[in-house]
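EI: anyone free to look at a 200-residue chain?
SC: sure, send it
EI:
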Amino acid sequence: MSQTRAPRRRAVLVTAALAAGVSVLTACSGDDVGSSSGDTKIVQGTGKITEVPEGERQKAPNISGKSVEGEQLRMSRYRGKIVVLNVWGSWCAPCRAEAPNLAKVAKDTEGEDVAFVGINTRDLDRANAKAFERNYDVGYPSFFDPDGKLILRFPKGSLSPQAIPSTLILDRQGKIAVRALKELSEKELRSALDPLTAEK
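SC: here you go
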């Protein structure tokens, strides 16, 4: 092989590897997801909020693992409550924008059988996630999921959290009632949550 061909071959192999990486990210993210934002690690959502009628909801997986604080955390401990499950990363600008809204609604609904839980993803260092929680006064726990394994526990074809940020709202039976593939305003979050708190 000539010296001119060797660099060209290496360039082709690198391009192929990068293309494969992009397709894996798309496959993991699902069909409803927009493209990643430039050089950031944000997988953009579609802006959709999907609400599911009571008889058509799918069960969410009973995920468990270590929290950002290093404590054991299980979704099963919230059985019988409405759960707001938010996927976030400290590096994600839309996550930072919606964090005060989530923190406020979490405090306002403490006595209403509503629990808030996060899934922190793609933060390789717990220190960054802890700083995020301090900065935005996040009073609820989050799973520490740097490699996204917990997110992949959601069945293919279900209303899985396919973007960052994503928010799922589970009903009292642990079924997915709402999915938001977007940054949520306080008003949007309350509008999605209120019908569920009224369900018996």
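EI: The chain has four helices and eight strands.
SC: 👍
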